Amino acid sequence: GEVLGIVGNNGAGKSTLLKVISRITSPTSGKIELNGRVASLLEVGTGFHPELTGRENIFLNGSILGMSKKEISSKIDQIIDFAGWQVDKFIDTPVKRFSTGMRVRLAFSIAAHTDPEILLIDEVLAVGDQDFQNKCLQRMEDISTGTGRTIIFVSHDLQAIEKLCDRVVLLSEGKLIFDGMPSDAIGHYLRLENQKSSNYQ
């Protein structure tokens, strides 16, 4: 029921960890135990069919994320509305004609409306504009507050990590380096990055 942030430099293993949790990648050792419905937003438009319209992809992607047709139908207006301008205008156009930003908006909106017990979010929010990022962060806060739902959030946006997360883990080369309060984890991460920079000079 917490918002867990994962930080680390490129290649630290953050996205790989989310792929293992969401069962896209099998672990080479160890195991992941999940309790509840998982919705993941790992790569832009994963689960979208380029030839299908935005509306058709809501049904396709929603069902991939575990929603029933009835559930999707009852939430479709909310999903389209949340995705915002341009998406609502082109919702009956094949998604191959959508911009990357439009695909991100729609993908996030679908994932956020599945009411998952566990929501995995990778760096994809970096693609949206500032207004949409704020809207997504607010939605993530709404999902986690007092509902007992878990969010695992990978981002290089340290401000968003600090604002949203209850706890943050720092990964480096696939290993856990630090696990604690967001401000402490971010401080540890920045010191590690500064150390690396001074080693290269």
Describe the protein's architecture and organization.
There is one protein chain. The protein is an alpha/beta fold. It contains seven helices and six strands, in the order E-H-E-H-H-H-E-H-E-H-E-E-H. A six-stranded mixed beta sheet has the order 2-3-4-1-5-6, sandwiched between helices. Strand 3, helix 5 and strand 4 form a beta-alpha-beta unit. The longest helix has 19 residues. It is globular. The model has no long low-confidence stretch (mean pLDDT 87).
Short description:
The protein has 201 residues and is an alpha/beta fold. The protein has helices at residues 14-21, 54-64, 69-83, 100-112, 130-144, 158-164, 182-200, and strands at residues 3-7, 38-41, 118-121, 150-154, 167-172, 175-180.
Please describe the structure with a list of short key phrases separated by commas or semicolons.
alpha/beta, 201 residues, six-stranded mixed sheet, 15% strand
**Number of DSSP helical runs:** 7
Q: Write down how many β-strands occur, each being a DSSP E stretch of 2 or more residues.
A: 6
Q: What fraction strand?
A: 5-15%
Helix proportion of residues, in percent? 40-55%
Q: Which class of secondary structure composition applies to the elements?
A: alpha/beta
Pattern of helices and strands? EHEHHHEHEHEEH
- Note the gap between the termini: 43 Å
Largest sheet: 6 strands, mixed
Poorly predicted runs are: none
Instruction: State the shape.
Output: globular
Backbone CA Rg: 17 Å
Largest beta sheet: strand ordering: 2-3-4-1-5-6
The whole-number mean of residue pLDDT values reads 87
